[in-house]
Amino acid sequence: MKADISAQTDDGQAFAGSAQAGAQPVASLHQLYPKQNPAATATATAIATAAAPAAPPTPIRFARPRWIRTLARRRVEGVLGLTSLLMMIVCWYLLTRFQVSLYVRFANIPSPGDVLSKFIEINHTTAYANNVLISLRRIMLGFGGAAISGIALGLLIGRYRYVRALLFPALEVLRPIPAIAWVPISVMLWPSNEVSIVFITFLGAFFPILLNTVGGVQAIDDVLIRAASTLGASERAMFRYVVLPGALPHIFSGLALGMGVAWVSLIAAEMISGQFGIGYATWEAYSLISYPEIVVGMVTIGILGWVCSGLIRLVGSISMPWLAFATRRGK
Amino acid sequence: MDSAIQSGRIEVKGARLQFEQVDGTPFTAIDGVSLTIEPGEFVSIIGPSGCGKSTVLNVVAGFSKLDEGVVTLDGVAIEKPGSERGVVFQQYSLFPWMTVRKNVEFGLKMKRVSPSKCEMISRSLLGIAGLLAFENHYPDQLSGGMKQRVGIVRALATSPRVLLMDEPFGALDAQTRTVMQEVLTNMWQRLRTSVLFITHDIDEAIFLSDRVYVMTARPGKVKCVVPIDLPRPRTPEMTTSTEYIALVKQLRGLIRAESLQAMGGELSAGGLAGINTDIGPAGIEGLF
């Protein structure tokens, strides 16, 4: 709604104002921007009356308010989202119900029903909740550490050439090493297994966050830096008010990516070296030939990962309100 | 002219600045440029694209350092950007993450002006520019003309001694542009800040300025200064007066030769008129 009004008053009335100024010799600033002044419209020339959209409102302005349109669009999107999940479950059900065996074999794969009853069963034990909580704690510590250090280092590397020259080569060599490849060294490095798993999680999340933060700082339009410097911004103020908010959209993409990789790394680490945790539980179920429990573990990981990414997107949209008005991409 | 204005005098003397091109060879952007802007004066620099007019502004703004020559503001050498020289950029340069009012208040906040005073100053300036209704909007909600108006208000908020404007209306459509020029002359007449205005638009330079510097291309030099003795306030109907039209003719003549030269001498006046460009009876296909 607000955007509609702004376009109207700026270009529409501004133009009417200029034509009016043409008719009367002295144009004050207020005359240039009349606020729906009927007298001004009357004295305006024929051209202005033809061009000024002041009198007849365009049909678009009587369209449903934006929030209703948003809600309608959201509802369609919501229905489509549910359909996508349902389709997946139906496919899964059919493939396991008829035990399809065309090169891929679904004979031993548990059906949605098996998994659901298993889920209800283990939900009565504390072990499941315990594993979920332990995994979540590892994510919070590992991802949290990666977010703090990745953003801080990324801002410095992005802004200062010399910091970049000093740190970036080493980081670029470490980056291609997958977090899982760190497991043996990590076990030797850290005093306990718990810390070593948190470290693996940290490593997984760290690089996407770091690289996106660096990219975000470098993507800031130089004219904004110049503008801030002509307005008297100190280096500190530049960081707080220009560099950080300017890089924020990229930082949040980095955080979302990092969260995904953090889960990948965590589950792998738990499967290899863990005790407790949802990844460990999933692998243990395989060892104990408890097939439905494997899928319970997988579904749990999927949902936890989705909730975590959703939280990041939520925090992102709350902390970047201006993006709601930026041009939307995609149809 | 108001005798109360004493500060805001810009002086550029013998300015020379070289850049290194991509292939490593030096390129002289400006050479021996000297100009002055008296306190409260509106001065434009006009010239073909690539003549170094923006370079002059960048030097005064403190973005670029001279290889030779001096640039001073009220007798003090300019070393780096500072809030006593407000800059309005060609591209939109509002901080997208700040509302209109926060953008305007940014410079004041950097000067540690109290929040209540910040609000008073920003709201009254936004009022002058007809933008008070949009104080809580984000830049992405505004049209191009409004964004540039906010940009001007933001540059003026710290009450700079000079306002430097680098083709600020270049990205706007013709109608919005003429209105913006009127808004600018109106604001300037109220505030009487010295203005250095860069443009390639002859009408714009005449409409706004007290004096117009014409620059030559490669390397950029000052070709001449044309005083604009039109009365103020300037109004759109002045653009049809004989004095105005004479000024347009004069400046157009001065710039045309420079533009042709700036395009590498490939275009000659004769060639543009259709002389010596006969492509033969076979037409274009005959050339292949």
Summarize the structure.
Helix content of chain A is 75%, strand content 1%.
Percent helix of chain A: over 70%
Task: Quickly give the structural class of chain B.
Answer: alpha/beta
Q: Write the element-wise H/E pattern of chain B from the N-terminal end onward.
A: EEEHEEEHHHEHEHEEHH
Radius of gyration of chain A: 29 Å
Question: What do the pLDDT scores of chain B average to?
Answer: 86
Give me the number of helical elements of chain B: 8
Uncertain spans of chain B? none
How many structural domains of chain A?
Answer: 3
Portion in strands of chain A: under 5%
Descriptive keywords:
heterodimer; A: 331 residues; mainly alpha; MetI-like fold; 3 domains; two-stranded antiparallel sheet; 14 helices; 2 strands; 75% helix; 1% strand; globular; disordered N terminus; B: 288 residues; alpha/beta; Rossmann fold; 2 domains; six-stranded mixed sheet; 8 helices; 34% helix
Give an overview of the whole structure:
The complex is a heterodimer of chains A (331) and B (288). Chain A has 331 residues and is mostly helical. Chain A has three domains: 2-62, no CATH class; 65-109, no CATH class; 112-325, MetI-like (MetI-like fold, Orthogonal Bundle), CATH 1.10.3720. Chain A has 14 helices and two strands. Chain A has helices spanning 2-23, 29-32, 38-43, 46-51, 66-97, 112-122, 126-159, 161-174, 183-189, 193-218, 222-230, 235-273, 278-287, 291-319; strands at residues 101-102, 104-105. In chain A, strands 1-2 form a two-stranded antiparallel ribbon. Chain A is globular. Chain B has 288 residues and is of the alpha/beta class. Chain B folds into two domains: 10-84 and 160-287, P-loop containing nucleotide triphosphate hydrolases (Rossmann fold), CATH 3.40.50.300; 95-156, no CATH class. In chain B, the strands form two sheets. Chain B has a six-stranded mixed beta sheet, with helices on both faces. A four-stranded antiparallel beta sheet of chain B has the order 2-1-4-5, covered by helices on one side. The radius of gyration of chain B is 21 Å and the shape is globular. Classes of the chains: A mainly alpha (331), B alpha/beta (288). At the A-B interface, helix 1, helix 2, helix 11 and helix 12 of A face strand 6, helix 2, helix 4 and helix 5 of B.
